[in-house]
Amino acid sequence: MTAERARLTAVLRELRARTGLSLAALSARTAYSKSSWERYLNGKSLPPRQAVRELCRVANEPDGRLLALWEIAEADWSGRAAVPAPAAAESRPRPQPREPQPQVPPRPPESGRPRGRGGRLLLALASAYTVIGVVVTLAVLLLPDREAAEDEPLPASAPYSLAPQCHGAACEGLDPMRLVCGIGPDTLTTYRTATGAHVELRYSEKCGASWARTWGTRIGDQVEITAGGPTHEVRVENRADAETYVFTEMAAARPGSTVRACFRPASAEGERECVEARVRAAP
Q1: Which residues, other chains included, contact 237 with Cβ-Cβ below 8 Å and sequence gap of 6+?
Q2: I want to staple 65 with a disulfide (CB 3.0 to 4.6 A). Which of 57, 201, 222, 244 is the partner?
Q3: Which of the two residues, 257 and 143, has the higher pLDDT score?
Q4: What are the two backbone dihedrals, phi and then psi, of residue 152, each rounded to the nearest 5 degrees?
Q5: pTM over 0.85
Q6: Rounded distance, CA 282 to CA 268, Å?
Q7: What are 22-49's pLDDT values in tens digits?
């Protein structure tokens, strides 16, 4: 599974965990079956765009950022994001030089007879079949799987690992979603700033790291986080960030550590506001 699909799957699983709904209950509140959600949340298949929107609705989550993640994962899954590297041609084995052949001047085309007619016909047929294949693929991807069995049991294990990809100091300064640390994290505290923005401190026991996320912001707002080590910050860059949420990179933390996040409003008149929380020991 690619990093793009792993990141999307991690965020979807986090949203589903936040709702507290079982797969059957989630199916009852959306247009997709229990077995369909099992495949989407375990990364077996890419969910339709509408399924992502419905999960955001159930979780009361703005869908802008999740849909952006879906677009990236869908482009990677369909191959549209594949761009050949400039050095790809150089890495291929070069053909062995052949003995020079005598140059033969090209024959002029016969008058009144088009050249390459058969080649153009084959190209047109190939293009038509390609278009048909793309349409069929999109139809299969976007239509809800309503006929799947409702009571299909969850598999004992997924065919790939969704386990966190780092722990402690190894997570310092890295993306919590890309490293699969965003599945079922603890919320240490949520703080509302004077401008109306929300700052939330998150902690993953499995990753031994914390990060901050913020929403209800304005372009130019910034949030930084530290757990006694390096400081990591994120800035609201555009309208999409302001309408959804942004999150910082991770700061290594352990039980007993104090995590501190500070909010800096874009307005020059605004004041810096900070909030702290202590990582609780595991029960």
Answers
A1: 219
A2: 244
A3: 257
A4: -65, 125
A5: no
A6: 41
A7: 999 999 999 999 999 999 998 888 999 9
